[in-house]
Amino acid sequence: MLKINNLHATVGDKPILKGLSLTVNAGEIHAVMGPNGAGKSTLSYVLGGRPGYEVTGGSATLDGRDLLALEPHERAATGLFLGFQYPVEIPGVSFVQFLREAANAQRAGRGEEPLSGGEFLKLARAQAGLLKMDMEMLKRPVNVGFSGGEKKRAEMVQMGILDPKFAVLDETDSGLDIDALRVVGEGINAIMRQPGKGVLLITHYQRLLDYVTPDFVHVLADGRIVKTGGPELAHVLEEQGYEAVAA
Amino acid sequence: MNQLATLPTRKDEDFRYSDLDALAGVWPVAREEIVVAAGASEAMQVCELGDGNVARHLAVNVEPGASFDLRLLNAGPAFGRIAVDVTLKQGAQFTLGAAQLGAGSQTLEIVTEVTHAGPDATSRQMVRSVLAGHATGTYLGRIVVARGADGTDADLSVRAMLLERTATANARPELEIFADDVKAAHGCAVGELDAAGLFYLQSRGLPPPIAKRLMLQAFIAEAFTGAPDEEAMSEAALARLEALL
């Protein structure tokens, strides 16, 4: 499904990713853990195509399609979803307004019929319910005035509405209280724990993995995957720290 | 601002950024006198969407206790100038919501002079410009608070968005205050679309022109919020915006 091979990337001429390789097969959830500055967020932005993150070598494909050759919106249309660590506030543009246009732009890209207003609202209401988010919040401007936890929940509602094949979730657990963590974890399972789908879960901490059990855990340090194991690796990291495990 | 008999020059502050060649073709500009009677409420909308050169000059007297709501959409003309002089008597209220949308080599300008002539008058002005290509968008806004016009409440918000570095925005908000008890606020900003916001919308699957259009639509919507004909003005602005992108 997602194949990353020997990926090198720089941000402002500074090398951040230094030969990262990773394969996620359909039906799998992989966690990427690592210390601050290891390149976790850079990995998510490079996969999403954020301007300023320059790929200097290697490849990344989703179901055989070269992600790196595509514009950000084209990557979304191939089924990639990027969950932001810091979701952006956009004054004056409501969630429902932009998500309906986004969902229909993606559908058009796949040659599918657009959703009507009614169909879209029904879908949005169901996904908001799954994440225990008040539908009224989705009528407000994108992320404006939302708490950190509400923004992360709104990211998952967006994921549910857009129904991607593959999600890269960058520190979706940060800023969440214990109850919200469980709701978000259950949301990830409900939306993405399906045959034919895959997830790359980027996190500092083991706690989200109590709710979303990964098939594999990778340790990212200095721009490379330095260790890979099963779910138990997350517990070892939590006990011993990155330095001991990555060494 | 009196009506000038002779064609202005660059030295004339109110015409400093104007397209004087184009202005010559529509000179002299007739003053359109508007009086809002004491205690009355009136609204007016001016949409300049044609492609010829246009210069207009509105002179508005808002009598005691009256209110006037003025919305401007300056978008079509190669040269489009809308000048508005407003005199507010005691307790009068004035609202201006204006948007200028320009591309190519358009020169668009809105020039206002709002005089708080009596006490306790309120003015709210909001001007939004979106400029692409080699367009020039100018807003010159003077607020004068006369001697004795205590209790004045004046607010002026000016923002311009440049879609390309080749476009030009001029903004000059001015305050002249001769009274003591006055609340006057003005804010002015010229910028580009937020890159982080654009990437966020694109990452959800919106092609760049749609992402930009959504953000700009929100940007100019503020100018028409609460207008009697809000929907029609917003739609006209949106159509023009789509042509710019």
Major sheet: arrangement of strands of chain A: 6-9-10-3-11-12
Continuous helix count of chain B: 4
Order of helices and strands of chain A: EEEHEEHEEHHEHEHEEEH
Oligomer classification: heterodimer
Structural class of chain A: alpha/beta
Query: What is the strand tally of chain A?
Result: 12
Largest sheet of chain A: 6 strands, mixed
Description:
The complex is a heterodimer of chains A (247) and B (245). Helix content of chain A is 36%, strand content 29%. Chain A has 247 residues and is α/β, with parallel strands linked by helices. Chain A has one domain: Rossmann fold. In chain A, the strands form 3 sheets. In chain A, strands 6-9-10-3-11-12 form a 6-stranded mixed β-sheet, sandwiched between helices. A 4-stranded antiparallel β-sheet of chain A has the order 2-1-4-5. Chain A has a two-stranded antiparallel sheet with strand order 7-8. In chain A, strand 11 (216-221) and strand 12 (224-229) form a beta hairpin. In chain A, helix 4 (117-130) packs across helix 5 (148-162) and helix 5 (148-162) packs parallel to helix 6. The longest helix of chain A has 15 residues, at 95-109. Chain B is α/β, with parallel strands linked by helices. Chain B has one domain. Chain B has helices at residues 20-26, 195-203, 208-224, 230-244, and strands at 31-36, 41-48, 54-62, 67-74, 79-88, 93-102, 107-116, 122-131, 136-145, 152-162, 168-177, 182-191. In chain B, the strands form 2 sheets. Chain B has a 6-stranded parallel β-sheet. Chain B has a 6-stranded parallel β-sheet with strand order 2-4-6-8-10-12, with helices on one face. In chain B, helix 2 (195-203) crosses helix 3 (208-224) and helix 3 (208-224) packs antiparallel against helix 4. The longest helix of chain B has 17 residues, at 208-224. Chain B is globular and about 55 Å long. Chains A and B meet through helix 2, strand 7, helix 3 and strand 8 of A and helix 2 and helix 3 of B.
